[in-house]
Predict the structure of DUF4767 domain-containing protein.
Amino acid sequence: MQKSFIAVWTLFLGLGLVGCGHQQQASPSSSSKKTSQQTSSRQASQSSSHSSKIASSSSDASHSTTKQPLWSNAKSAKLATFMASWSKTMGQQYESYWQGHSVDMYGLKIPDELGQAGTNQPGSMAMAVGDKAVTWALSTSGESNAEYTIVAIYSDAAHEPYLGKHVYLFTLHNGQPEVLVTQQNQGNDNNWLYFSETQNQELRLGFAKIVQGD
């Protein structure tokens, strides 16, 4: 009887040791799964962070490359301030003009009666620069398909005596700032109103700085 009991106890003890062995072997597997899950979580977090940085960089690059207008209301206001100061320096009084509010230059309304190259509209004169009639356009953004894009017009014609009047066109020619002036007081066979680039360096540089945003 004792032998049988001892045999049963020995068998039970052996099975218990085998079970413990299986549990000890299973433990590393469970730890490995946890480590794998943690690694995957970190990788997913890093991937998400990297994607966010790429998206942010793309957004910043897109913002920095946004094209700025060549002309704007802010630049127009700066030009008005500049012209007020320059007028005092010159001892003259200049006013701003635009379509629908033209300056009377010896009977010709500018810009309303300023014609285009290749046209011969009654009561108008084509704009010419040098010895060539040119195309022009008024623009508040500085953009147009014309040879000369006019962004501002100033004149002292309302305040100066005969033969002392000036009209200045502040233009962009091939994307570059150019101030044109005329003092023409009569017609001609071509029926052109002749402009030339002003020789006043202060006016030229002042306008260029405003266009360039300085």
Remarks:
- The chain has two domains: 1-66, 73-212.
- Confidence is low (pLDDT under 50) at residues 1-29, 54-59.
- The longest strand covers residues 148-155.
